[in-house]
Amino acid sequence: MRVDIGNALASVASPGVSRDALDQLDETVARAHERIERGRADDEFGYASLNLPERTDAAAIEDAVEPLTDAEAILTVGIGGSALGAATVSQALGGLSADGENADAAPLYVLDNVDPARVREILAEVPLDRTAVNVVSRSGTTAETLSNFLVVREAMEAAGVDWTERTVVTTGEEGPLRELADRHDMPALDVPEGVPGRFSALSAVGLVPAAIQGHDIEGLIEGGRAGADSLAGSLFESPAYAYGAVSYALDQRGASITAMMPYEERLEYFAEWFAQLWAESLGKDGLGQTPARALGATDQHSQLQLYRAGPRDKMVTLVRARERADREIPETDIDGLAYLGGSSLGELLDAEFEATEASLAAAGRPNVRIELDRLDAESVGELLYGMEAACILAGELYDIETFNQPAVEWGKRAARGLLGGGDFEEADAVAEKTELLVK
Amino acid sequence: MRVDIGNALASVASPGVSRDALDQLDETVARAHERIERGRADDEFGYASLNLPERTDAAAIEDAVEPLTDAEAILTVGIGGSALGAATVSQALGGLSADGENADAAPLYVLDNVDPARVREILAEVPLDRTAVNVVSRSGTTAETLSNFLVVREAMEAAGVDWTERTVVTTGEEGPLRELADRHDMPALDVPEGVPGRFSALSAVGLVPAAIQGHDIEGLIEGGRAGADSLAGSLFESPAYAYGAVSYALDQRGASITAMMPYEERLEYFAEWFAQLWAESLGKDGLGQTPARALGATDQHSQLQLYRAGPRDKMVTLVRARERADREIPETDIDGLAYLGGSSLGELLDAEFEATEASLAAAGRPNVRIELDRLDAESVGELLYGMEAACILAGELYDIETFNQPAVEWGKRAARGLLGGGDFEEADAVAEKTELLVK
Questions:
Q1: Is the CB of B283 less than 8 angstroms away from the CB of A305?
Q2: Residues from chain B contacting residue A275 (CB–CB below 8 Å)
Q3: Closest C-alpha among A193, A280, A101, A5 to residue B301
Q4: Given a cut of 90, is residue A401 above it in pLDDT?
Q5: pTM above 0.95, yes or no
Q6: Which of B70, B73, B111, B251 has its CA 20 to 30 A from that of A244?
Q7: Superfamily for the B2-38+222-398 domain
Q8: Under a CB-based contact definition with an 8 Å cutoff, are residues A402 and A281 in contact?
Q9: Closest C-alpha to A389, from A291, A281, A251
Q10: Residues of chain A with CATH 3.40.50.10490
Q11: Using one digit for the tens of pLDDT, what is the confidence trace for A100-109?
């Protein structure tokens, strides 16, 4: 993973960071790195996330899912950190159902919402007797996940399928899912201790579906290890810290939005994963940089006008892999299009990448480039680890609590109360909505 | 379509708009409405978009696509406004390929990027001899669209398929695609005059795939008509103007980000479509409100921490349909989850909607509710029209040029230059990239 922060410099962009300011910031980065390393050495809550490449037992995951590797479809039932890492990994390496048929991998369906129409569609589509169900919830009580699980279980029972033979559970040491797994002798993997969901991609939480699909999960972990090896006490020597430090510095100078724009269809979910990582970790105490998900080249025709000519309140991150399978564009005699003929889609995509990057710089809009050699397990693992480390570094620089998410509890209590799951004052507040209806 | 702006009031939120300020703003809204009506009466460039429900000839579209209605798959080759409207309509009414099999509609694949791996995947998946190709480009020279079209055409030829019998073209009066359609006697529909791509959903541009799929395009247009009928010289009487005016007012007070959060999986693409509409129209001269795409309930577990506890720089729009197909949650004896049993996924989704809305209000974060009766053609048409009208009103309030997108030209010239399509100084700038590489 290589990070080029040249277009974030004050000599190029406004907001931009001067070379002097980066040197100054680097002293704080050095101290932050020491703090992070101490946290890792103690396996401290949150910092332990950066130890996953050492802790995650790929063989144990592969053993646990072995009985399910003949599955023709995989259903991940989870939400947030319990789904986004898995979806990201499976899409990047191939096999997300939304991307269509894949000769090499059973398609992964992600049941991460409680829209009844969608749940019904998915249950009608998958061959229930040849589907592996992967339920993920640390607590075992996540309302959406458990509701969907109950529905999936009932659908399987109605279809005469023994769900206990088709299910793998990833959960904490205790809770309803752990009890269910024990009672029915189902494969059960551990949500890693001390690792918030959004940091758990390089654990069973993110790797089980990929393992069922036969992907190279050791390679992903190896990539994470390479990411760990590249951490250093200077942003100039650590791509991950360069990214985190520059994002923070740009936010300090007004770039309150960070647009994550991979030029890879297979990294579209990565941008979603990044959005949770960045938003949920850094959105604290009135601080935080808002992630905006984008995709190149598509969003040049949607967002680029705003990025170039709107408020100077954003940074754009462009991500690409240097090696790719390609497809020639045939020669053509169509007037004005001859220049495309004989080129290739990959060359066009690369030209768009460089043109968009340069167009942002020409408009003085800060942007950062992230490059991978190719989209393989090692590179993807290194990318995910790198973003996690960048986020943790940014959390140190902001001086916020990176590893919790207290603001989501209010809504959980309100929803539970509305459904009759207890007496919560939050539910009463719902009834007191201020209304100004226009129709 | 009903819009509730109660939670955007200063009595609830900060930033928030006082009732007095709304009354004051309403005078400007009245003048803006007059300006818009004048523009419509003259079919003026851009304002003509709001005349589409009167102009769009559903029968002509259905006639043009009639030979293709036996298609088992549809390939829309287009980008930006030439793809997002179609994808939105087909997803909302059913039949986007990414959403899986649909008993009622041939799946729509959207080729809106030049990622060679993805293009190859799609071409390998669709039955080329039973696929309808829908090429959309006003100019007929959009690089990504024409490159993809050349590749698709070659794939069909290689498969022994007469592409001229399987293709419908939507383009301007002139240009390479119009010439191609004339030369090969292919069905050709008009990109409407005076309507920028992002405002063209209720024209052939957005409706052709839905027509092939057998959806109720008259209903969509009828919904647009209802939207037009609901425009009035006061934000208190026009849901669309309420939405546009409040979004503008909140941005003036610091809500520079607008998170569009439908609680409908079938409106996920709607949020993408909205993002182009809002960003590309309003991102001018250092102004503009940045759209962030979100989805309920999923993103409660991703973005809500930031929305509630991050900077006070955003508004959130929650969208739902009141009637929906539902799915019961089975009774359960699992400890602590009994409250879910006997409820339904729809009730849970509604509880999450109301809880999230209330949780934002409790944290003083401005939010707006948009409700539809159900997700049918009329409601979807009204929603799309309403957002377009809201956007045009906002453009009047910002005093910017709503209907162009000049900032995207630089990158187009640079990309063309890089591919040898002419001498453009922008391409030279690409080679002068400032580099600060960390690896």
A1: yes
A2: 302-303
A3: A280
A4: yes
A5: yes
A6: B251
A7: Glucose-6-phosphate isomerase like protein; domain 1 (3.40.50.10490)
A8: yes
A9: A281
A10: 2-38+222-398, 50-215
A11: 888 789 999 9
DSSP-derived secondary structure for A271-326? HHHHHHHHHHHH--TT---EEEE--TTGGGGTTHHHHHHS-S-EEEEEEEES----
Give the catalytic positions of B in this structure.
280, 301, 412
* pLDDT for A389: 98
Q: Does B179 touch chain A (CB under 8 A)?
A: yes
Answer yes or no: are the C-beta atoms of B391 and B402 closer than 8 Å: yes
pLDDT in tens, A68-109: 999 999 999 999 999 999 999 999 999 999 998 887 899 999
pLDDT above 90 for B103: no
Angle at B78 between CA A90 and CA A372, to 5 degrees: 35
Mean pLDDT, rounded, for B349-355: 97
A237–chain B nearest CA distance, Å: 6
* Residue A99: C-alpha distances to residues A87, A243, A287, A346, B54 (Å): 11, 29, 36, 19, 37
Give yes or no for a contact between A87 and A98, defined as CB atoms under 8 angstroms apart.
no
* From A280, A357, A388, A396, the catalytic residue: A280
- Which residue is closest to A435 within chain B, CA to CA? B6
What are the chain B neighbours of A12 within 8 Å (beta carbons)? 434
Is residue B299 pLDDT above 90, yes or no?
yes
Please give the span between the terminal C-alpha atoms of chain A, in angstroms, as a whole number. 52
pLDDT at residue number A215:
97
Residues 267-286 of A with CB under 8 A from B: 272, 275-276, 279-280, 282-286
Burial of B362 (0-12, 13-18, 19+ CB in 10 A): middle
**Least Cα separation, residue A66 to chain B (angstroms):** 27
Q: Which of residues 26-65 of A touch B (CB under 8 A)?
A: none
Cα of B187 to nearest chain A Cα, Å = 19
ipTM over 0.90: yes
Q: Does A172 touch chain B (CB under 8 A)?
A: no
Q: What is the pLDDT of residue B102?
A: 81
Share of chain B above pLDDT 70, in %: 100
Instruction: Sort out which chain B residues have CB atoms less than 8 A from A251's CB and list them.
Output: none
**Region B273-294 average pLDDT:** 98
- Of A101, A173, A301, A433, the catalytic one is A301
Minimal Cβ distance to B411: which of A279, A300, A327: A300
The pLDDT assigned to B385 comes to 98
**Chain A residues near residue B116 by CB distance under 8 angstroms:** 324-327, 344-346, 349
Pairing of strands B131-137, B73-77: parallel
For residue B96, is pLDDT > 90?
Answer: yes
Q: Residue B250: phi, psi to the nearest 5? A: -70, -40
**Per CATH, the architecture of A50-215 is what?**
3-Layer(aba) Sandwich (3.40)
A301 is annotated as an active-site residue: yes
In tens, the pLDDT along A188-197 reads 999 999 999 9
Does A434 reach chain B within 8 Å, measured CB to CB?
Answer: yes
